[in-house]
Write a structure and sequence with these properties.
heterodimer, A: about 240 residues, 6-stranded mixed β-sheet, about 25% strand, globular, B: about 220 residues, mainly alpha
Chain lengths: ~240, ~220
């Protein structure tokens, strides 16, 4: 069994107080191991975004624990949490969220520089990360000179640059056409096959199908999961 | 139907004997529609009877090769240039199951929907794994240098397999989307309250529907 990178332990998130209370998540437990890509599906309002925000330490659970690489987020102070987010967690968003005034390499190097790494070293690691996702030749290009698919690859490189192994992706193909979107998922899949842990929120079945496992959310509760076993019969393609 | 037309389409590329036809058919459809040799020979027998193919003698091992007649060639051209008849598509068990589930008392329809969705997603994931492998194989072939003919041939078979897989993926995706739709329809019906439309309008609940239609 691979090392668990992300663990949600009986996590509940309630927004508001008294009559205005809304339970966004109710007792959700979930694990994502190194090498695994897990998809979360569910209708709008089912708690997908809340789940992702909690998993990335952007929001805190009302009860329950979020654990990233053995560290319980609730036990970290503000600085500790910020450091963990910077070093351990990468986000990929629907609209890429690259900084327009920075080149691809500068965008990818940014989290490393913020973490105190020297510019030269950060750049080398950034270019490595760009090469891994197949856009190394775009290192010195600005986001507005890249296609959507290229920008999203840069975002994946940024999410996994350095020692970061947890990538949280919120509808990463939402702004892309079907072929480009698939290319992005293929890159995400490859990064997970290479040892990263991925949590992917999507409402598209064909994209969730790239994951090892799909977790179905309804009204803040996990109602089902596809489990991890791949049909052996299907893994033997005809020669 | 497709086996008959498929074998003729293969014979249009050159004469072949039964086992060869079977192997080619399966390679190009990725084994999605396995054929047995008996089925191939039965089909060839009928095609010969109908004048679409003819035997051209046995080889040293006694295997009889077949080739297309002119009539057969015209039949193949007609197949390529006409659409597939959807009227004869077999009925879908899932559609029948859900149609019955919403009309038979005591069936937990949301669970029926979710069970199917989970199974379909699992199937989609397996297909996507195969597609990932097929894409990797296709990348490898595209990257090979030299030996153009072989590469092209293998590349085309990878492409055929990829197209078959994608067809199955699209079908699975459509099924999941339909299940999502079924679910939201059920939620809407539940919100509207019991007795709103338990049975199809044909059984006399037309008034409910008309009222609802006028309101929305």
């Amino acid at each position: 069994m691979s090392e668990t990178i992300l663990r949600l332990e009986d996590v509940t998130r309630i927004h508001g107080t008294d009559e205005a209370q809304v339970t966004a998540l109710a007792g959700v437990s979930l694990e994502v191991a190194a090498g695994e890509l897990v998809a979360v599906m569910g209708p709008s309002g089912s708690g997908k975004s809340t789940l992702l925000n909690l998993a990335g330490g952007l929001d805190a659970p009302t009860t329950g624990n979020v654990v990233i690489e053995g560290q319980v987020l609730g036990q970290l102070g503000k600085d500790g949490l910020a450091r963990l987010r910077r070093r351990r967690v990468g986000f990929v968003f629907q609209d890429f969220n690259l900084i327009p005034s920075l080149t691809a390499a500068e965008n990818v190097a940014l989290p490393l520089e913020l973490d105190g790494q020297r510019v030269g070293k950060a750049r080398r690691r950034a270019v490595d990360a760009l090469n891994v996702v197949g856009v190394g030749e775009l290192a010195d290009r600005y986001p507005d000179k890249m296609s959507g698919g290229q920008q999203q690859r840069v975002a994946i490189a940024r999410a996994l640059v350095g020692d970061r192994r947890l990538v949280l992706a919120d509808e990463p193909t939402g702004a892309l056409d079907s072929h480009t979107g698939e290319g992005v998922l293929r890159v995400l899949r490859e990064r997970c096959d290479a040892g990263a842990a991925g949590l992917l929120v999507t409402h598209e079945a064909r994209h969730a199908a790239w994951a090892d496992r799909v977790v179905f959310l309804r009204d803040g509760v996990v109602v089902d999961s596809t489990g991890g076993d791949v049909a052996e019969s299907l893994l033997e393609p005809t020669a | 139907m497709s086996v008959r037309q498929g074998l003729m389409a293969l014979l249009a590329t050159g004469p072949m004997y039964g086992a060869q036809l079977r192997a080619e058919f399966e390679a190009r459809t990725g084994g999605t529609w396995p054929l047995n040799v008996g089925q191939v020979y039965t089909t060839l027998g009928r095609l010969e009877r109908d004048g679409f193919v003819e035997g051209i003698g046995a080889d040293d091992e006694g295997r009889i090769s077949y080739r297309l007649t002119d009539t057969g060639r015209r039949e193949v051209t007609a197949w390529w240039t006409s659409p597939v008849d959807r009227e004869t598509t077999p009925r879908d068990e899932l559609v029948i199951k859900l149609a019955l589930a919403v009309t038979v008392d005591g069936v937990d329809v949301p669970t029926v929907v979710q069970t199917q969705r989970t199974a379909t997603m699992r199937h989609l994931r397996d297909l996507t794994r195969l597609k990932q492998q097929a894409m990797a194989a296709s990348d490898t072939h595209a990257g090979q240098a030299g030996d153009d003919v072989k590469r092209d041939d293998q590349g085309r078979i990878d492409l055929a397999w990829l197209l078959v897989l994608e067809n199955l993926i699209f079908a699975g995706e459509a099924e999941v989307r339909w299940l999502d739709h079924v679910e939201s329809t059920l939620v809407r019906e539940a919100v509207r309250g019991p007795g709103a439309r338990r049975t199809p309008p044909a059984y006399g609940h037309d008034t409910d529907r008309t009222t609802e239609g006028a309101r929305s």
